Amino acid sequence: MAVRYSGTVGRRFSLRKREALAGYLFIAPAVVGFVVFVAGPIAASLVFSLTEFRLIVPPCWTGLANYGTLVRDPLFWQSLNVTIRYALAALPLGLVCSLALAVLMNQKVKGIAFWRTVYYLPAVISGVAVAVLWTWILNPEFGLLNVLLRYVGVKGPHWLGNTRTALPSLVLIGLWGVGGNMVIYLAGLQGIPTELYEAAEIDGAGSTSRFTHITLPMLSPIIFFNLVMGLIGVFQFFTEPFVMTRGGPENSTLTYMLYLYRNAFSYFRMGYASALAWVFFVLVFLLTLAVFRSSPLWVYYEARGGR
Amino acid sequence: MSGGLSGSGDMLAKGRVWLRSRKTRARMVHAVAYALIVLGAVVVFFPFYWQVSTSLKAPADVFRWPPVWVPIPPHFENYLEVASVVPLGLYVRNSLIISSLVIVGTLLSCSLAAYGFARLRFPGREAIFLALISPMILPWAVYMVPQFVLFQKLGWYNTYYPLIVPAFFGSPFHIFLLRQFLLGIPLELEDAARIDGAGFLGTYARIILPLAKPALATVAIFTFMGAWNDFFGPLVYVSDQRLFTLPLGLAFFQGSPRSTIQIHLLMATSVIIAIPCILVYFFAQRLFIQGIVFTGLKG
Question: Where does the pLDDT of residue B295 fall: very low under 50, low under 70, confident under 90, or very high at 90 and above?
């Protein structure tokens, strides 16, 4: 430092300038990528959504017509409905199951590394491979699930071919991957100081109150993180319905992403697809914002000394 | 007097019973937890077993009641037969080309950006960083249509460019992960290098990259998993069957009418896709779990 201070003010300034210039150069590729592949397209999609745009012919301005069409499009409402129902089932179930599993694993069980490996395995498999495998498992005649049900004398339904069971089946498949979040919760649980539990025990706190007064608050930042990431994930649910059910039967698994995909890449209605994308964006943004806004009420940050 | 003594004796006895019951209770809780874990693991693992066992069955044994649980003898030749139904070698090659280039691009662009954000001071640093990682919580559905139009106008439709080129321009998640890691490395080593007259690029290449190896390995693994399993990208950008990747080929196979009778081959293909991921996961599990936990806990 002494060396630097012995230089003139001008030299110091140029050093700082050089560092700043180097900084901009280092981040330049990422900034260009962000502008060209993300920020630009987001702005462009807002413009596209106000046009009639079929890819081969140049876009033509139609104002809010796409949004008007959208409100009257029964498939838009259907896909929104399907997606919300999927999210309402998959998010809480996934949260409860992965958390419960992590709490179980935290009971100092033997061979924890082995069990963790097994539970995490489904999370490393490709979405398509998972979809293909589960299509076979849910096969009405010879699939694993109905074969097992047949052993106990139950005739299993045509899981994916029935409007009432198709979407719940997809929720079930999602649960197969709870190991992914379980690993995160488990690490969080292992980071909770044992003194907290010991102190609570001395105070006579039962296991339930220890869970609600220590475990949950201490894990709440991780729950928050998983909730935010999960929200975006479930709303963009695509591969399984695309590969397994093609949105059927009778559009009962037509997720929003699937409908958006069809408009953009099957019908090449780029303008309408962009309008769908923007409605989606606003919706997911508002939900994420709501989660963020609600966080002071339930997320405990140690550094801030609690609520 | 005696009453008092017997009373304290009672208390002691009660205390012992209490202790013992507490221990038994703890042990019971433990046993129940263990049983649930094992049961859950069986449920989680069974689909894998079903997948592999189906892939080793004779075609006639796939559709049979009662089911054939253990295919004896295992028909390993099913895996060779896959290649006669789908151009497997080609799909594997295509997937490998894309995955390896995406890994190279991601490592390069993200480590450069992470170094810039973690170590160099420049105006607007925090704001730019926040903007750059914002796509992590942004649905990409919003920008995929104009992105497609852009690549299509560039004449990149039906090529691998749309799948590979963006990787050379950073990925929010990995920039975030690497920056977090670099922030945890002490500054002294770099200062020493700087005093020795190394420039920023020299410091990055000779000091930062070697130190960041574990984090870079984690990024490489995540990127591999993502690129290898990517379905949406190839689905949107590739139409020529000779350019198909493994997931795309598998989805196509599943969609073809023959898949309903050749389930053993379909399962064999899905096993083939899964094998590299499972191997990587097993051999790099520590890095993998660290990476997940790292982003999950510090995110």
Answer: low
Tally C-beta pairs within 8 A across A and B: 282
Chain B within 8 Å of A107 (Cβ-Cβ)? yes
Share of chain B above pLDDT 90, in %: 54
Chain A CB within 8 Å of residue B83 CB: no
Q: How far is A66 from chain B (nearest CA, A)?
A: 15
Homologous superfamily in CATH for domain A73-304: MetI-like (1.10.3720.10)
- DSSP per residue over chain B, as a string? -HHHHHHHHHHHHHHHHHHHHHHHHHHHHHHHHHHHHHHHHHHHHHHHHHHHHHHTS-HHHHS-SS--SS-SS--THHHHHHHHHS-HHHHHHHHHHHHHHHHHHHHHHHHHHHHHHHH---TTHHHHHHHHHGGGGS-THHHHHHHHHHHHHTT-TTSSHHHHGGGGG--HHHHHHHHHHHHTS-SHHHHHHHHTT--HHHHIIIIIHHHTHHHHHHHHHHHHHHHHH--HHHHHH--SGGG--HHHHHHHHHHSGGGGT-HHHHHHHHHHHHHHHHHHHHHTHHHHHHHHHHHHHH-
Name the stretches of chain A with pLDDT < 50.
1-8, 304-307
pTM of structure:
0.88
pLDDT at residue B270 greater than cutoff 50: yes
B139 vs A127: CB contact, 8 Å cut-off? no
Q: A151 in helix, strand or coil?
A: helix
Q: Does B283 touch chain A (CB under 8 A)?
A: no
What are the tens digits of pLDDT across the range B232-254?
999 999 999 999 999 999 999 99
B114, closest residue in chain A (CA to CA) = A27
Q: Which residue has the tokens 């990925």?
A: B171
Q: What is the pLDDT of residues B185-221, one digit of tens each?
A: 888 877 777 777 778 888 898 888 998 898 999 899 9
Helix (H, G, I), strand (E, B) or coil at A60: strand
Contact in structure between A280 and A235 (CB atoms under 8 Å):
yes
Of B38, B169, B229, the CB nearest to A30: B169
Which chain B residue shows the shortest CA-CA distance from A284?
B139
Tens of pLDDT, residues B35-55: 999 999 999 999 999 999 999
Using the Cβ of B39 and the Cβ atoms of chain A, whether some distance falls under 8 Å is answered with: no
The span from the CA of B269 to the CA of B80, in Å, is: 10
B68 touches chain A (CB under 8 A): no
